[in-house]
C-alpha cells in the first residue's frame, strides 16, 4: 500500500493546526476569564459594607492562576519555537506535544476547581447565606467537576488519536 505524501502532509498539518488552535483558545479564554472574575470579585468585595475575607482570597487566587497561566503560555510558545523540525514527523510531534499540553492544562484546571469551590463555599458561609444557596453552589461545582472530566476525556482522546496515527505511520515506513 502506498501513501500519498501530499495528502498525508496536509492531514498532519491540519491536525497540528487544530491542536494549536484549541490550545491557544483555551489558554487565552482561561487567562481572560480568571483575570476578569478575579478583578470583578475584588471590586465587589472592596465596595461592600462588610467585606468577606474569603472573597479576597478567591480574588487573589484567581488573579494568581491567571498570571500562572500567562507565564505557562509564554514559556510554551518560547519552548516550541525551535523545538520541532520542519518535516512531517516534526509537525506530528508538535501536534502531539500541544495535545499533551492541553491534557495537562485541562487536568490542572479541573483540580483548580477544588480550591475555588472551597473559597466560594467559605465565602457563602461567611456572608451568612442560606443553606439553599450553599447547596446550589455545591451542586453547581459538582456539575462543573463532571463537565471538566468530560472535557478532559475529549482532550485525552485527541492526544491518543494522534499517537495512534504516529504509530501507524512508523509501522508503514
Description:
- Helix 1 (5-46) packs parallel to helix 3 (88-126), helix 2 (53-81) runs antiparallel to helix 3 and helix 3 runs antiparallel to helix 4 (131-172).
- The chain has four helices and no strands.
- It has one domain.
- By secondary structure, it is an all-alpha fold.
Helices and strands in order:
Blueprint lengths: L4 H42 L6 H29 L6 H39 L4 H42 L1
Shape: elongated
- Total helices: the number is 4
Reported for the largest beta sheet, the result is:
none
Number of strands: 0
Unreliable segments of 5+ consecutive residues? none
Indicate how many domains the architecture comprises: 1
Q: Helices and strands, in N-to-C order?
A: HHHH
* Structural class by SSE content: mainly alpha
Spatial extent as radius of gyration: 21 Å
User: Helix fraction?
Assistant: over 70%
Strand content: under 5%
Q: Distance between termini? A: 11 Å
Mean pLDDT score, rounded?
91
Task: Describe the structure concisely for a colleague.
The chain has 173 residues and is mostly helical. It contains four helices and no strands. It is elongated, with a radius of gyration of 21 Å.
Features:
173 residues; mainly alpha
Amino acid at each position: 500500500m502506498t501513501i500519498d505524501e501530499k495528502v498525508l502532509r496536509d492531514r498532519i498539518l491540519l491536525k497540528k493546526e487544530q491542536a494549536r488552535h484549541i490550545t491557544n483558545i483555551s489558554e487565552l479564554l482561561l487567562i481572560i476569564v480568571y483575570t476578569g472574575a478575579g478583578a470583578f470579585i475584588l471590586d465587589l468585595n472592596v465596595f461592600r459594607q462588610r467585606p468577606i475575607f474569603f472573597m479576597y482570597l478567591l480574588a487573589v487566587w484567581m488573579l494568581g492562576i491567571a498570571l500562572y497561566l500567562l507565564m505557562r503560555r509564554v514559556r510554551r510558545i518560547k519552548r516550541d519555537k525551535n523545538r520541532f523540525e520542519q518535516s512531517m514527523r516534526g509537525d506530528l510531534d508538535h501536534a502531539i506535544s500541544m495535545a499533551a499540553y492541553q491534557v495537562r492544562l485541562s487536568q490542572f484546571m479541573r483540580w483548580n476547581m477544588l480550591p475555588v469551590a472551597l473559597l466560594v463555599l467559605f465565602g457563602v458561609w461567611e456572608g451568612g447565606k442560606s443553606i439553599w444557596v450553599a447547596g446550589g453552589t455545591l451542586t453547581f461545582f459538582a456539575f462543573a467537576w463532571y463537565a471538566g472530566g468530560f472535557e478532559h476525556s475529549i482532550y485525552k482522546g485527541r492526544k491518543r488519536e494522534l499517537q495512534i496515527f504516529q504509530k501507524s505511520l512508523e509501522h508503514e515506513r
